[in-house]
Specification:
Length: about 180
């Protein structure tokens, strides 16, 4: 089964009060309280591919490479997630990690890379990985083979900074958009 074939079985994107609850972390970032969410979450700014409006979503950074200021995020709702489709249309954007903004470019990873990432994530966060997989209707027993299979089905995106790894960023000031 290819990742594209797996998308129709994914749960529906939340609506109503569940959508409001899922969007609450965006308000924390907007209020400058993003660090309260810990070092596992970032605020992704993206541009609506149809509307051209600025959009924001909080995502879990399933992998973070500090020396390169590179974050890897997963699209649990598959390729139909708006943020994912918006990044496909406009891969250059900005992320907020803590209270710092970073200009990044989105790179869409191959399924075999996703398998490796999900396996490592499952080893670091076994309970969360099992719950996530179960919620998404993916293999959820926590074994390495199940994690690899789930990782092949989930689209992963690496967000890499545009500047050199040691380039300083001003605290709290977003870099200019390219």
């Amino acid at each position: 089964m290819t990742p594209d074939e797996a998308d129709p079985a994914r749960p529906r994107v939340p609506t109503g009060w569940r959508r409001l609850a899922a969007r609450a972390p965006v308000l924390l970032f907007r209020a400058g309280l993003g660090p309260l969410l810990g070092r596992r979450f970032l605020l992704l700014h993206h541009v609506g591919r149809i509307s051209g409006n600025d959009r924001r979503v909080v995502l879990e950074a399933v992998a973070y490479e500090a020396p390169y200021r590179s974050w890897t995020v997963a699209s649990g709702f598959g390729r139909r997630s708006d943020w994912y489709r918006n990044l496909r249309a406009q891969p250059k954007t900005v992320v907020q990690f803590g209270n710092r903004h970073h200009a990044v470019t989105a790179h869409f990873l191959a399924p075999h890379e996703g398998a490796d990432i999900m396996t490592r994530y499952g080893l670091r966060h076994p309970r969360t990985a099992r719950r996530l997989c179960a919620y998404l209707g993916l293999p959820a027993d926590g074994t390495e083979s199940a994690l690899r299979e789930a990782g092949r089905m989930i689209p992963f995106v690496r967000l890499e900074t545009d500047g050199p790894p040691d380039a300083p960023h001003r605290h709290g000031t977003p870099p200019p958009r390219k």
